[in-house]
Amino acid sequence: MQSIQNEAMDTQADTLYLQIADSMAGLIRTGTLTRGERIPSVRMLAQQHGVSQSTVVQAYRTLEDARLIEARPRSGYFVAARPVRLPEPDTSRPPVGSVAVGVSAMAAQMLAMAHDPAYTSFGAACPAADLFPEERVRRALSRATQRHRHTLCQYPTGHGDESLRRAIARHALRMGCSFDAEQITVTNSCLESITLCLRAVTQPGDVVALESPTYYGFLHILENLGLRALEIPTHPRTGLSLDALQFALDTQPIKAVLCVPTLSNPIGSSMPPAERKRLAQMLGARGVPLIEDVLYNDLCEEDDKRRAVKAYDTQGVVMVCGSFSKTIAPGLRLGWVEAGRWTEHLRQIKAATSGSQAAVLERAMADLLTQPGIEAGYRQLRNTVAARVDEARGLIAQHFPKGTRVTDPAGGFILWVELPSQIDSLALFHAGMAERICFAPGTMFSATDRFRHCLRLGMGGKWGTAERQALRRLGQLATAMA
Ligand SMILES: Cc1ncc(COP(=O)(O)O)c(C=O)c1O
To answer: Which of 75, 163, 266, 409 could share a disulfide with 366, CB 3.0–4.6 Å?
Structure first.
């Protein structure tokens, strides 16, 4: 727990209370102790360590200063539920018209650096390799290769391995969706699923409504399909403004809505259940398809926000797209889509584009999804990244310029930072690059060149002394630009 040591006692050698604080902080950061959980009383911990109660009190004060724990009157000490309270950004205010999209060049440059080991990177929206169950994946793959080696030299056909489609249908039950496994199409990623859905329901030149800010991967797809983006105001906590969407539906020829109702990227919003129901009803009444991206649902800390909009869809307008890129194994490149009434059309497009996936990979994924530890694995991942996000919010509060706002997502590993308006995040991006620090500048998340003073920080990657120092440094660089 270097940072507390550095910050609390720069020059002094380790003392007993710091060792105790270190070990408790380690338990919090690795997720062994989770947000809101009670930690041992001062008396109990003093007995456990054979130290005086005042030593433990000092350790707990250090943890309080680092905003990792909080004292609650007459109840004891708890892991801080929301350790840092910074203001959140306001609801976005994009222009009312739709636009053609052109974001690819900037995204390609940022992505190249995000994966370059020479950079300390907050650029990627993905957990680091060591947060995935790599050993399980390796064993599942070798089992699948052993048992299904006959598939290796055959063309795969159909819409995905049956056992995988059944496993996905069971998985979807947790989001309140009861799917017929026959209707699920396995794809090579969530982005492929979304591309196929868009191709099934739009033509070049059509208008697609999406969150603002939105994931640049979506803008990239729209750009490539010749679709126009209509950015809808979005609140960092509750997501798409449905009043604004209603107005847009009344005034613009929207052919589809593309949305991430749970932990949207980059703003981290998660729509409340009532809003999900209203969205399904609003689009159902008009017959406008919703392409729902459920990629992050398993990473949400709040059960009711893991429930998909699809669960409220009585008119059959919602297509659901998911993958395992953020929770199990991005390297297997497997995703899925349940496209309802558009399933046949979508399958034709897929057959003409990418055909089927490798059968052994699908078998391995089916194996992984049906293993007993899967839920515990999601919980562990949620806790680990929550602890990092909390710590990063603390560092941002301490080191970024006055007036900075930051999101407080209900899970996941993405933070959206709004700097004071005079700071250009592209200039900060270049200053960061010069020191080999990478993040995603805000303009990547808009088709209308908005969010110049914002940045996205992916906190799921490597996390250690270098990353903490890089985050402090970004704050210093931004402060110098304020
Ligand atoms: C919202 C969202 N959808 C889709 C993807 C891509 O998922 P996949 O790797 O399955 O294509 C990402 C990746 O960051 C994402 O943030």
So the answer is: 163
pLDDT tens digits along 298-321: 999 888 899 999 999 999 999 999
CATH of 2-79, one of 2.40.10.10, 1.10.3720.10, 1.10.10.10, 1.10.580.10: 1.10.10.10
3-state secondary structure of 321: strand
CA of 359 from ligand 1 middle (Å) equals 22
Minimum CA distance residue for ligand 1 atom 16: 265
| One-letter amino acid for residue 295 of the chain | L
R_g of the chain, CA atoms, integer Å: 23
190 CA closest ligand 1 atom index: 10
How far, in Å, CA of 69 to CA of 395, rounded? 15
Confidence (pLDDT) at 104: 63
- Ligand 1 center–CA 194 separation, angstroms: 10
Structure confidence at residue 172 as a pLDDT band (50, 70, 90): very high
375-481 under CATH 3.30.70.420, yes or no: no
What is the structure's pLDDT at 7? 41
Query: Which of 122, 265, 299 to mutate for ligand 1's pocket (most ligand atoms within 8 Å of CB)?
Result: 265
> Residue 87 Cα, ligand 1 centroid: separation in angstroms?
27
In 10 A of CB 228, how many CB atoms? 22
